[in-house]
């Protein structure tokens, strides 16, 4: 090969290997009983080359850890505060206390670039309680940012669920996308504010949920990025080979229909769980993320939105205190386990560098809590433990579903034992359980070991369950032991986003 061609090849190869997915960020949630030190998490983010972080609140410790790093930070305002922010003076005070004080324009400050106004406030489950306050809250926060001299670098937006747009049943293709009739007027208000301030439209897109709620009607391969043999065909010969592109372009069509063809679309959440459902496992999560990273790195975009796409992976860590009402997979969205260990190798930036763990995490001793061999009634033990620890791996379709009843009870009491930092009295259950140094893990079911933390829940001894204990204040708001919980119908419908694809593929 001529020397010139060799050099061109090497340069091309280096460019490909070094292609940085600049638009990629992560959601850093905190609905966990045990949290990792924010400074160590930030070190991990830096080592992984992650430059964008999306928070759901404005935790001072987390923000202080992000100060001086230069990372682009999105902070959040809870839905509960939206009604108060209809008052412009409250909005000004909020911006002063939660944005201005962190000096977002200073190299030593927190580079706050986005403020999320609520979280998916137009879900049908909220029954319009937030419909008419979200727009005014958005406008007041953005005006307060502008008045503080921050409006050019810090934008307010509304993280929305993909259920805000759809296509008609008689023409179920992305180009026919439009906004839901019941929220179109409040959305017009929001779009006007976003457009005036050059702020992005943010939407959460979950191909996993389309597959999950499709009940077998949604084509499996369409949730990933490997292509399909029978693509969805839109007008003018445009073909869609994955759910993400179709969903994004339905959103783009809806925006165009309201006169905002050029408004930036930002994906606020995008991920795949690793347990709690037959589709939620490490193998499929790794497949999804590798496909998505490759998709972003190409910079091709979707048919209606060509070019680079900015998206935030959901989520950074598993969160064991999340409600399992939408599904038992809710506590397993993390790229990392709650102890800061990566679940699988993943190259985020095409630099042949896989994920690194959170540093300085000290695991507890290699010991587990198990039920004693002579115990034959496990219901009370399991119920008590699972009301206070995450037992979703025991549910149908999950990693520990094949355990026998005794081993399931052992998994439950061990989950409680580890959540209580292996305290001496947390593996007793009035003589029905004992500590062992032999790992009881089997097959796909991993009996975890906890890690040292300063943020555990208030400890409680492992008494036998009773009616009094079942209402204890340390019980989880939605018990993971409720294996058969079903999502509300409206939430299931909403979470599918591009739900019409199910009917489309039924007819292909």
From TrEMBL:
<feature type="region of interest" description="Disordered">
    <location>
        <begin position="459"/>
        <end position="483"/>
    </location>
</feature>
<dbReference type="Pfam" id="PF00332">
    <property type="entry name" value="Glyco_hydro_17"/>
</dbReference>
<keyword id="KW-1015">Disulfide bond</keyword>
<dbReference type="InterPro" id="IPR000490">
    <property type="entry name" value="Glyco_hydro_17"/>
</dbReference>
<keyword id="KW-0732">Signal</keyword>
<feature type="signal peptide">
    <location>
        <begin position="1"/>
        <end position="23"/>
    </location>
</feature>
<feature type="domain" description="X8">
    <location>
        <begin position="367"/>
        <end position="447"/>
    </location>
</feature>
<dbReference type="InterPro" id="IPR044965">
    <property type="entry name" value="Glyco_hydro_17_plant"/>
</dbReference>
<dbReference type="InterPro" id="IPR017853">
    <property type="entry name" value="GH"/>
</dbReference>
<protein>
    <recommendedName>
        <fullName>X8 domain-containing protein</fullName>
    </recommendedName>
</protein>
<dbReference type="InterPro" id="IPR012946">
    <property type="entry name" value="X8"/>
</dbReference>
<dbReference type="Pfam" id="PF07983">
    <property type="entry name" value="X8"/>
</dbReference>
<keyword id="KW-0378">Hydrolase</keyword>
<keyword id="KW-0326">Glycosidase</keyword>
<comment type="similarity">
    <text>Belongs to the glycosyl hydrolase 17 family.</text>
</comment>
